Amino acid sequence: MKDHFQDYVREQIAGVRLAAESWTPQRVLSWSFETFGNRVAISSAFGAEGMALIDMASRVRKDFRLFTIDTEFLFPETYTLMDRIEEKYGIEIEKVYSVLSSQEQERIHGAGLWARDPDRCCSLRKVEPLRCKLSELSAWITSIRRDQTSVRSSARKVEWDAKFGLVKINPIVDWTSKQVWRYIHDHDVPYNALHNQDYPSIGCAHCTRAVRPGEDPRAGRWPGLAKTECGLHVIDPVAASPAAGASKAAKSAS
Ligand code: SF4
After folding, report:
1. Ligand 1 centre and the CA of 109: distance in Å?
2. What is the atom index within ligand 1 of the atom nearest the CA of 206?
C-alpha cells in the first residue's frame, strides 16, 4: 500500500508540473487535496492573496487544513481577522510558534532583535517554526504571486521545494493584485482592516509600515532595509530536479 502511494505521488508530480501551469486555482486546489489528503495544508499570513485562496479552498473542501506562523508580533487587526476566518469557514487555524517566546528571545538575544538583525529574528520566529511544521506534511500551499518580488518571479504552480523537502503548490502564482481584489469583492471575502489604511502587504508590526503614494506595494515591509523576504520563499541554491523532488515527496508522504 505504502509503495503504491509512493509511486502515485512520483507519477503525479512528474506528470502535472507542466500541465498545472494552465489550470485554474480551483483545479490546482482540487488536485492538491485529492493527491495529498490531510498531508497538505495552506500556509497563510492572511494577506489579500491568502484570503482569496482560503475562500477558494473552502469551496473545494470544507475541512481543508490551514496554518499560520504566529510570531507573536502580528498586528491586532491580524489576530481579529484570524478569529473571523475560524468563524466564517468553520475551521481551526493551526498556529505555529517559535520555540522561544518573545520574552525568551529578548532575554537571550536582547531587546529589538528585529531592528538589529532581522534575518536572525525571522529565522527564529518564522523560518525554523515553518521548517518544523512542514516536516509533518507532504505538500504545502501558498498564495505567493510571481510579480510580488524577484525571488518569486520563477515560482511554478506545482514545484519541488528543495529548501524544505516537500511539494510546494502556488495556485494563484500567475494572478495579479487586481485579480485578487476582484475575487475578494465578488465573493465578499473578509480581509485585514489594515488594507484600508495603506498597508497593501502586512507582516509583523515591528517591521511593517503603511506605504506612501507611488511606493511599491511591499515598500512597507522592512522599511529602510534591503531585506524583501522573511526567508520562507527564498530558494536555496540546491539543484532540485523534478525527479529528485518526486522521490523525496514519495518518502515524506509515507
Ligand atoms: S518580520 Fe520582523 S519581527 Fe517579524 S520575525 Fe521577521 S524580523 Fe522579526
Report:
1. 14
2. 3
Q: Where are the beta strands (DSSP E) in 8-152?
A: 40-43, 66-69, 94-96, 139-141
Of 42, 219, 211, which Cα lies nearest the Cα of 134? 42
Distance 65 CA to ligand 1 centre (A): 24
Residue type, 34: E
Among candidate residues 240, 97, 114, the one with its CA nearest the CA of residue 165? 240
CA distance 161 to 157: 12
Residue with cell 484570524: 82
pTM attached to this predicted model: 0.87
Verify whether ligand 1 is closer than 6 Å to residue 202 (CB atom): no
Residues 97-129 have pLDDT tens digits of: 999 999 999 999 999 999 999 999 999 999 999
Report residue 74: phi and psi, to 5°. -80, 160
Q: Is the CB of 118 under 6 A from ligand 1?
A: yes
Q: Is 230 a catalytic residue?
A: yes
Distance in angstroms (rounded) separating the CA atoms of residues 83 and 85: 5
